[in-house]
Amino acid sequence: MSRSGPGGPNAVPRLDSPVTILRGVGGERAAQMERLGLRTVGDLFWHRPARYEDRRKFTPIRDVLLGTPVTVCGRIVAAGNHRFRKGTKSCFEFILEDETARLHCRWWNLPFLGKFYSVGNEVLVYGRPNSLRPRTMDHPEVEKIETGEDGSVHFGRIVPVYPLTEGMPQRTLRWIIWHVIDRFLSQLPETGPWRTPELAGDPAGALGRQEAVRKIHFPAELPEAEHARQRLALDELAALQREIQGRRLRLNLKAPGLPCGGDNRLMRPFLAGFPFKLTGAQTRVLREIRADLTGLHPMRRLLHGDVGSGKTLVAACAALMTIESAYNVAVMAPTELLAEQLHDVLTGVFGPLGIGVGLRTSNTRQEPDVGSKPELGSVWVGTHALIQKAVEFPRLGLVIIDEQHKFGVAQRETLLRKGNFPHLLVMTATPIPRTLGLTLYGDLDVSLLDELPTGRGRVRTHVRTPDTLPKVWQFVARQLEAGRQAYVVYPRVSESENDDVKSVTREFEKVRDALAPHVAAMVHGRMPSAERMKIMDGFREGRVQVLLATSVIEVGVDVPNATVMVIENAGQFGLAQLHQLRGRIGRGSHESHCILVEGERTDEARERLKVLAETTDGFAIAEADLRLRGPGELLGRDQSGLPSFRFADLVRDGNLLEAARASVRRELAAKAAGLTANPPAPASAQ
Ligand code: ADP
Ligand code: MG
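Above: the input record for the complex with magnesium ion. Below: its predicted structure, written as tokens.
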């Protein structure tokens, strides 16, 4: 056998050869395949079927049910185009017949279909009948049965149905993939079954990689396709874990931890001046953080705590340890409002200790005042303005990121690169389902603040429809008369033309009048921050009793006297976000009420809001949100960190993720042990 170079005319076809080496794939076909992301022969292995059809037997046309998807098989007995509205609209229709009945299949404004289907053709049709008198399907999928092809690929078995692109017939792609598996699968590097204790006895783990590829395309029975999917998902999840955990391992190998544990000379007076006792959880977490800040490697820690659990205090203590060690601290928050608030809080507690606190947002730049105690570190608080190129932090010891889920990994890394491997503490109040957490922050150690400070009133949650709003305002007014304060939250700043979702600017006067003589004011993200701060101060100090807002108040606002929150068009928000919003109340000793107003009467909308009324456990809410809306919606469109998997499904594959993670951890530990035993020779040739 003579081998020429990969590009030569007699090249032995390999997995990385272009698809054009396949029989029947010319330039036009290749261009279509390119649109599906299929460039090489090997790419075809990973083109995942959208669904499967059991073609071992077909449903007789007589038995089709309204609205139930079904595949039927028959012969075209009539076909033609109808034109109407002076020829501007058309409908192509054919009538399919089997031994039992006839089925009308119709397509609007696709007149060219007439070229493909004619009387006498045998076809398979997949769709949902939308009428039974006569039996009709609109826009079904069709597959022509042609003689001369290998029937065993398309019939008498479970067949894959692939995502297609214009001009590419289903059976052509199916045949190509069948052929590629037949001829090239043995070239795919075999990784064997997953022999990890976590997957002992699991049919997915038992499959080798080649077998899994074969079965995801051509399973003998349907469950095999699912096992194959899981097996391929394992590879995907493990690859990601290898990347995440490898990153951490490399960091530990190259960077010693900066000594930022402090000596308690500021911490002691600080805690003595704090009016409460730390919760047990806060004490435990601070011990974990102190161990990290005095440890061998840079801290990489995620502080997870439900709204109101007291994360800010923990962050302040971590900052203090660093400042005592004469290192500086950068604190990044997702919004200007939040940055300004953090700045206020930290100035209030650090100022008296002689610690400078600076502020940096896109509008404000205020240097920390380090006048009196130059031997101490200082603090910069800011928004993403902190990560701009020109901004520098000398002696950066600790980076704190609040509401970390609002930032991508890239932003986090940019801030970290401003120092020489500083410690990192990221905080989130958005409980995140474990699978997403491990995917997004798998390289972080996790601390949990799972205990709320005592003396908090209960929060009751009620779901109401808009027609009960007058009663809702009466209820709010009674609370205001009793001296409490209220939030009213809207999904929008101003109205949009294409729906009737309420906006804060449009509703303001109405609500103000309904609640007069109590003082109402509004805040939203589009007003100047100085004005917003003034109103927030007014609310904090009790001069404003009702605050109308968008979700800008989602994080950071802390007014214990506010005991009512009305959320209009609640269905527009995600569950996790509603839970966040609700965390703004119930901060004082009075009982609080969250009233979710929603007009939508779909089951899904109702089920979602019911979850909130029934539980205050943020993790349970996050899991429900993940199931109901999926990961993309849950994390928000701006979430850049989530990889797109081909086979893995973060909603369903929790156990696979755990197995992949444990397995990669063992693999890397073994590798690291090897590295320490045989330190690599110093790099000389550079
Ligand atoms: P979050 O975790 O949502 O960021 P915060 O840090 O804003 O919570 O804390 C919420 C409120 O709880 C603040 O008013 C804070 O002063 C208060 N707090 C924090 N720790 C304690 C504690 N140990 N005991 C009582 N109140 C506390
Ligand atoms: Mg907070």
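Notes for the reader.
The two ends are 42 Å apart (CA to CA).
The CA atoms of residues 492 and 498 lie 13 Å apart.
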